[in-house]
Amino acid sequence: MADTSGSGGLIEELAKGRITTRQAYVVLVAAGLVLTWTTNVFQIISYASRAFALYYALQSAIATMGALRDRDWPRLAIFGAACVLASLIVVFGRSIE
User: In terms of pTM, does the model score above 0.70?
Assistant: First the structure.
């Protein structure tokens, strides 16, 4: 529920008001229902896990670029490794049933 609430506002913001929060909720709920009715629950969890890994990969990439700009080599190595690991999870992650 919290993810839907946050996503509705985010969609409205990204659409610059062309899509209202209420319209975004309708689309999000419809997408959630279709996904739930057409997909195995383990596959849904796998999709969500990969989405989180992608988010972490992007955050790590941003941190890596900042460390590179600051010439902070220890943090560059840590953030770069986190980016690579999260990217590998996105690409090779599998559902365990």
Answer: no
Question: Helix, strand, or coil here: 17?
Answer: coil
Nearest to 61 by CA among 87, 93, 27: 87
* Same domain membership, residue 54 and residue 17: no
53-88 tens-digit pLDDT:
999 999 999 999 999 999 999 999 999 999 999 999
Helix (H) / strand (E) containing 36:
helix 21-38
Taking the C-alpha atoms of residue 90 and residue 88, their distance in angstroms, rounded to an integer, is 5
Residue 86: CB atoms within 10 A of its CB come to: 22
Q: Which of 93, 88, 63 is nearest to 78 (CA)?
A: 63
95/64 same-domain check? yes
Domain with 3, as residue range(s), is 1-38
pLDDT above 60 for 2: no
